[in-house]
């Protein structure tokens, strides 16, 4: 079953299965370090919410604290939507190094690296658009600054540590607010076999 170029299947793809299998020894070792006896690696996922800038910084804060307490190393999957995906992009682009992520964000907002005048000029240029709002202003001036490097990065450039199992397997979710006609009555089978109405 395929939909708009996305393969829908109840099974893991070969690459995901290999990455998760490579992650299992790391998870077991990290659980044991935390005093939790484990012979097998449980599947543990952390999911970040949407919410733009708030979600981005909240997710980064959670990742930092999880890293500080040794909990990030027991995670199998790391998933996010919207603002949390920005945090995940920072996390994977910087190979999971939280100090680099923090330094990178600080660097982006240093006065010599950010032309407020240029940002305001571009904002004024698009302010005449019919649907322009304060949210658009905020997005351009602040959020585009904070995520500027992501536009040139690719998911494939983040995969080295994931394939080795040194970082959790990422899931970047996107939301399409337009419900396609062919999806309205679509039912899918969940992994446990019960039907879920979309």
Structural class: alpha/beta
The largest sheet is: 3 strands, parallel
- Classify the helix fraction into a percent range: 40-55%
Q: How does the overall form come out from the CA principal axes?
A: globular
Oligomer: single chain
How far apart are the termini?
Answer: 15 Å
**Beta-strand percent range:** 5-15%
Mean pLDDT: 80
Describe this structure in words.
This protein is α/β, with parallel strands linked by helices. The protein has a domain at 2-114 and 155-174. Helices cover 45% and strands 12% of the residues. It has a three-stranded parallel beta sheet with strand order 3-4-5. A two-stranded antiparallel sheet has the order 1-2. It has a two-stranded antiparallel sheet with strand order 6-7. Helix 2 (52-68) links the parallel strand 3 (45-48) and strand 4 (77-81). GO terms for molecular function: calcium ion binding; calcium-dependent phospholipase A2 activity; calcium-dependent phospholipid binding. This is PLA2c domain-containing protein. Residues 1-198 form the PLA2c domain.
Features:
single chain, about 200 residues, alpha/beta, three-stranded parallel β-sheet, two-stranded antiparallel ribbon, disordered C terminus
In short:
With 198 residues, the protein is an alpha/beta fold. It has a domain at 2-114 and 155-174.
Task: Present the secondary structure layout.
Blueprint: E1 2-3, E2 6-7, H1 14-33, E3 45-48, H2 52-68, E4 77-81, H3 83-93, H4 98-108, H5 116-126, H6 134-146, H7 159-164, E5 169-173, E6 187-189, E7 195-197
Parallel strand pairs: 3-4, 4-5
Antiparallel strand pairs: 1-2, 6-7
Helix pairs in contact: 2-3, 5-6
GO molecular function: calcium ion binding; calcium-dependent phospholipase A2 activity; calcium-dependent phospholipid binding
Pfam family, one: PLA2_B
GO biological process, one term: glycerophospholipid catabolic process
């Amino acid at each position: 079953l395929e939909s708009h170029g996305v393969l829908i299947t109840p099974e893991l793809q070969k690459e995901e299965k290999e990455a998760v299998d490579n992650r299992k020894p790391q998870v077991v070792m990290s659980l044991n370090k935390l005093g939790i006896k484990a012979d097998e690696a449980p599947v543990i996922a952390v999911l970040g919410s949407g919410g733009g800038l708030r979600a981005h910084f909240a997710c980064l804060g959670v990742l930092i604290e999880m890293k500080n307490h040794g909990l990030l190393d027991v995670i199998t999957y790391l998933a996010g939507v919207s603002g949390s995906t920005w945090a995940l992009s920072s996390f994977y682009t910087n190979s999971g190094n939280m100090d680099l992520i923090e330094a990178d964000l600080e660097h982006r907002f240093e006065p010599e690296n950010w032309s407020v005048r240029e940002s305001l000029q571009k904002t004024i240029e698009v302010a005449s658009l019919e649907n322009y709002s304060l949210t658009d202003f905020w997005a351009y001036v602040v959020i585009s600054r904070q995520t500027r490097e992501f536009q040139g990065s690719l998911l494939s450039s983040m995969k080295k540590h994931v394939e080795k199992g040194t970082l959790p397997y990422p899931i970047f979710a996107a939301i399409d607010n337009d419900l396609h006609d062919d999806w309205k009555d679509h039912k899918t089978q969940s992994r446990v076999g019960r039907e879920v109405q979309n």
